[in-house]
Amino acid sequence: MRSSGDESTHSSDVVRPRVRVNLRKGSVSSDGRHALGLGSARSETSQADSPPPTPVPVASRLTFAPNMATRRNQAGLAIGVTIALLILLIPAGLLLHDRTRAASTNVSNSVPIAISTSAVGIVTATTVVTDPETAGLTGLQSTVASDLPVLTRDVAERWVPQISSKQFGLVAEGITWHHAEILREHRELRARYPNVRLLWSGAWSTFSYPDFWITIVAIGFPSKDGAIRWCADNGLDRDHCYAKLISTSHSVEGSTGYQ
Fold first, then answer.
1. What is the pLDDT along the chain (259 residues), one digit of tens a residue?
2. Is 36 in a helix, a strand, or coil?
3. Are 178 and 133 in contact (CB under 8 A)?
4. Neighbours of 161 (CB within 10 A)
């Protein structure tokens, strides 16, 4: 229990605040201080008791941070699309390669004279037509060239059976002899008799005309009698076989022997 004296003493020590509210702004209290008006007091009290206002964002200034999950989903989608494209393109490339290789194999197995290939891999064959006369002349010339070394080595300055002589444009045996016909006849004789060769009369001195294709049997005899006997033994008459001297120095006279 506290004594009344103590309570008196305690009460005298307590300073009680005095608050004067003047309804008129700008009035001064008895202690010389400015008193706040009612409106100001209410405003300050309201500001002290109310929470701070929430800022309202302006729509034009709103920014959104990128969503990491969205980025991951987009990256995964791109990878998936790439893998799908590779799965589709690899078989297509292998199929195109196989078709190209098959087309190349077919071309190599064929025997066209000329081959042209388009940009898309389609192969077409073109046959080159050769003039028969050109082919005949080429065949005669190449045959003479290949037979010349044999004649020079085996029958030069010797007698041989001559079984054909044809000039381009000659009319004989019911036909006009062109290069194709001359080559055909020579090949037939070459297949029928052994050691048949072809020479060009202009390369030898024992022929009267320098533009005949001469078919002979390249069996050399020391005299014309041996060549004539060969004609008779093979059933050829004097119009289709006689003896001829093959030389580059002997004259035409005396270089022919008949049956």
1. 444 444 444 444 444 545 454 444 444 444 444 444 444 444 444 444 455 555 544 444 444 445 555 566 666 677 777 777 767 666 666 666 666 665 555 544 444 444 444 444 454 555 666 799 999 999 999 999 999 999 999 999 999 999 999 999 999 999 999 999 999 999 999 999 999 999 999 999 999 999 999 999 999 999 999 999 999 999 999 999 999 999 999 999 999 999 9
2. coil
3. yes
4. 28
Buried b (16+ CB within 10 A) or exposed e, 12-37: eeeeeeeeeeeeeeeeeeeeeeebbb
Q: At what angle do helices 179-192 and 132-154 cross, to 10 degrees?
A: 40
Rounded CA-CA distance 11/243 in Å is: 178
Given the DSSP bridges, would you call strands 212-217 and 158-167 parallel, antiparallel or unpaired? antiparallel
Q: Phi and psi at residue 243, in whole multiples of 5°?
A: -85, 140
Is 159 within 8 Å of 256 (Cβ atoms)? no
164, β-bridge pairs: 215
Q: How far apart are CA 14 and CA 12, in angstroms?
A: 6
The rounded distance, in Å, linking the Cα atoms of 176 and 167 is 10
Task: Record the tokens describing residue 150, joined without a space.
Answer: 């044999």
**Euclidean distance between CA atoms 165 and 96, whole angstroms:** 61
- Rounding to the nearest 10 degrees, give the CA dihedral for residues 204, 207, 210, 211: -110
Instruction: Say which DSSP state 179 is in.
Output: H
